Amino acid sequence: MPKLAEHKWLLPALLILLGLLTRFLFIWLPAEVVFDEVHFGKFVNAYFTGEYYFDIHPPLGKLLLALGGWLGGYQGNFDFDRIGEPYGHAPYIALRILPNLAGALIPFAAYLLFTALGISWRVAWYAGMLLVFENAFLVQSHFILLDAFLLLFGLLGAAFFFRARSWQYALRELALAGFFLSLSVSVKWTGLAFFALAGFFVLKDFLVPFLRSGTRALGAVLPRFIVTLVFLPLLTYVLIFFIHFSLLSKSGPGDAFMSPQFRAGEKNILEKTLELNRTMYRANATLSATHPYSSKYHTWPFMTRPVYYWVKSYEGNGTARIYFLGNAPMWWLSTFGLFAAFFFWRAKQKELKAGLFAGYLLNMLPFMVVPRVLFLYHYLAALVFAIGIVVVWLDALAKGRKYERYALPVLLFIAIIGFVFFAPLSYGLPLADAAYRMRVWLGSWM
């Protein structure tokens, strides 16, 4: 891409444009409740009625869903009674807009992170394009769900952190990192994995040298880390709960989970935030529900158990289905590349390899000890780093060889073909039985 070197801004612009196109295409399909829209729709309604609800996740994602609905004229008057319930005249698209917007920006955020880690803009762009054409990211941002917010904020926070690190931990970038990392955690606690990635490099850069030689470098920057990566995120986190409590001023079904003092309003915002977070932790730790499409973390790299989100039969026109299912060729290539790169990638930039693998492992480790039911979509954050690893390693492998200029374009071509092939199961387009069976490559996908 020598001619693009002078106009390389065109590449991230293309990422954003294609992200918007793929995410907002068929946003109106289906005009029925899909999977966990049942739950998050009810939580959104609470912000319109003011009735207190309880959820195992922090409130930011639901607040953003409610904001999108409010901007689009939604009044909180649809009951979200069951999967497959028709939306009728309810402006449900308004509730899907912000998740889709966040999903559209995820490839661009990953591009920023990869370039901040030291990957060339060309290679980072290919990694971003693979995310554009990854069906799993499309599905999880296409509906009234939370994970697109979690991933977007986490990737942006990590990107700003590594930008700050490359500039001697510049204050402005550190502050932006702390802010976005806090937003990620305020959607789901699994966003703490991005915080852990930042913490890993802070320890590597300062604590390890300090313990070895007693250098004073840590003391010089410690106040900056405390302000930007501790105080600012905590303040942001609490302020989000303040908004949450302010909008839920009435008694509601969530009262049953809280203490009498909490329900009577005898506690201030900080005390209520602490109690709610303790209750959320206990609920997560004791959640015993099962699900036929749940899966264990060690199966995720092989995509053996996708999640069935929605189905509807049309007489004479096939059956429409929505699966949380990845772009199988790219998913499996990323897994193969992940293991191959771990053993055979002799990286000249050892910190780059460390950063990518640390990002992958830190986004997998929490799920190794979480007792609650888990699903394939919990792998998405780790998948970002797996794709980054395989693209960087393949580019390094091809360097200086006859096929160097073709390696990444061929990979992208495979991704586009796979995306289009599985797109009917992502968007919920009708398929004849034979066409559906052609896309079910493993018996465990049924």
Keywords:
18 helices, 63% helix, 3-stranded antiparallel β-sheet, mainly alpha, 446 residues
Entry summary:
With 446 residues, the protein is mainly alpha-helical. It has one domain. The protein has 18 helices and 3 strands.
Helix/strand order: HHHHHHHHHHHHEEHHHHHEH
The number of helices is: 18
Low-pLDDT segments, ≥5 res:
none
The tally of beta strands, per DSSP, is: 3
Spatial order of the strands in the main sheet?
Answer: 1-2-3
| Mean residue pLDDT | 93
Global shape: globular
Strand content: under 5%
> Helicity range of the residues?
55-70%
Biggest sheet: strands, sense, closure?
3 strands, antiparallel
Would you tell me the structural class of the helices and strands? mainly alpha
- List the domain count as a whole number: 1
From the alpha carbons, calculate the radius of gyration and give it in angstroms. Answer: 22 Å
Distance between the termini: 42 Å
Notes on the protein architecture:
With 446 residues, the protein is mainly α. Helices cover 63% and strands 3% of the residues. Strand 1 and strand 2 (319-324) form a beta hairpin. It has 18 helices and three strands. The protein is globular, with a radius of gyration of 22 Å. The chain has one domain (2-250, 287-445). The mean pLDDT is 93. It has a three-stranded antiparallel beta sheet with strand order 1-2-3. The relative contact order is 0.12.
